[in-house]
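Look over both lines:
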Amino acid sequence: MAALRLTIHEHRAQVSPVAAGFPFVGWTITPEKRRLRRRNVVAFWRRYRQRLAAYAAREIDLDRLGATVHGWVGQTKHGSTTGLRRAVLRTLIPRRIADSR
């Protein structure tokens, strides 16, 4: 390491117990489970509410809304997110606003 003049980043390279978990690509990995980071969950809920409103206003169709949900569920299946997925899938889809023609 001395020949390459590499140094360890003091604040990032901290020794900590594995049970505390470590962040990796949007997840917090522990020996028991993989949890989606809160920031990612909040961002998804924000996008999902926007898509629900766009669907109600007839800006997008049901296929586009479904693609959003299916993509997110596919991603979250890789972790311990059963309760989170149930909460999303329980969200009611709003009625569409009638065309004013």
Observations:
- Residues 18-90 form one domain.
- Residues 5 and 13 are 17 Å apart (CA to CA).
- The chain has three helices and three strands.
